[in-house]
Amino acid sequence: KVDDIDLHEREGRITRGKGGKGRDLVFGHETALALARWLAIRAKRAPGSEFLFIGRTGKRLTGAGIAEMLARLGDKAGVPGLRAHLFRHRWVHAALEGGMGERNIITLAGWSSSKQLERYGASLASNRARAAAHTNPVQVF
Predict the structure, then answer these.
(1) What is the pLDDT of residues 107-116, one digit of tens each?
(2) Would you say 82 and 74 are in contact if contact means Cβ atoms under 8 Å apart?
(3) 3-state DSSP call for residue 31?
């Protein structure tokens, strides 16, 4: 919802995510700018709506609507099969690669254990390991 986003602090809150759990969001400057632009457009399309993301009719965008939009935009951008879940995998990889602690990732992702982190992080674990090895090579004489 619109009230769950704080552009100045670059934070937000998902009040009810998967499994009915809430979680905090932290986003960067570019995302804050994009959200500010979207809020200006959205205010004209659906004045008074409490929902952050709306469809063409001005009503709340559903999960199915998001999936349809991403598939359409992905095809247009040359990324067939684009789905929201891929962004979550990429975020976990970037957070691990950037040095974010595992406990912080688990908390921000809204998970209750490290099992999901292992699953999400596994897809690009070898990439991170090779990058770390290049950064800190072991010299054997």
Answers:
(1) 998 888 888 8
(2) yes
(3) helix
